[in-house]
Design brief:
Layout: H1 2-5, H2 8-20, H3 26-44, H4 46-65, H5 70-82, H6 92-95, H7 103-110, H8 112-119, H9 124-127, H10 133-136, H11 157-171
């Protein structure tokens, strides 16, 4: 069901439709920036790109269940695509390392939510509260998450939604054999 809800092509189609209508700046410029960042992530780490697309699909399903307004759903959709964008600053050799990570390597990966927040800074106003899905998607309700150890309602709705969609994206991702789970 999740894979049929939408595809990245749908987001690109929305951008093209806006351009075809002569819409310039505003939403169109922001959507273009998101797609550029996602393309950069795809080049940097293809596996993360596929994961980000799955997370976007699960976030869309959650938005439906939460009965979010269309504008809120759209912002969550874009933020979900960007949730792991901070991995752009993590060396690809670490992201794809088949062996156990060193403490230094693991610390680099644990910083990706904060790095992502920095990278999407110019998009934060446009994404609104849903921008919090980027820095907070690894926080945990019990306070033992990363990067800030936020507990309970200290994590905003966007962060909690991002965390659930991220977990689903991992569980329904690609296994070590390269096949979908």
């Amino acid at each position: 069901i999740a894979r049929r809800v939408g595809k990245p092509r749908d987001l690109q189609r929305q951008l093209q439709e806006a351009r075809d209508k002569g819409v310039k700046g505003g939403d169109t410029a922001y959507m273009q920036k998101v797609l550029e960042l996602v393309a950069a992530l795809s080049v940097h780490d293809r596996q993360t790109r596929g994961h980000s697309e799955r997370v976007r699909v699960f976030a869309d399903l959650l938005a439906d269940e939460m009965k979010l307004a269309p504008s809120e759903r759209a912002r969550l959709r874009w933020a979900s695509l960007l949730h792991d964008i901070g991995k752009l600053v993590v060396p690809a050799t670490i992201l794809s390392k088949p062996a156990k990570l060193t403490n230094v390597e693991f610390d680099a990966i644990k910083r990706h939510p904060e790095e992502g927040a920095r990278l999407i800074g110019p998009l934060s106003t446009w994404l609104g509260e849903w921008a919090d899905a980027v820095p907070q998607h690894h926080e945990r309700f019990d306070g033992r998450g990363d990067p800030r150890g936020l507990a309970g309602n200290q994590t905003r709705l966007a962060g909690r939604t991002g965390a659930v969609a991220d977990a689903e994206g991992v569980m329904h991702g690609v296994g070590p054999d390269g096949n979908a789970r």
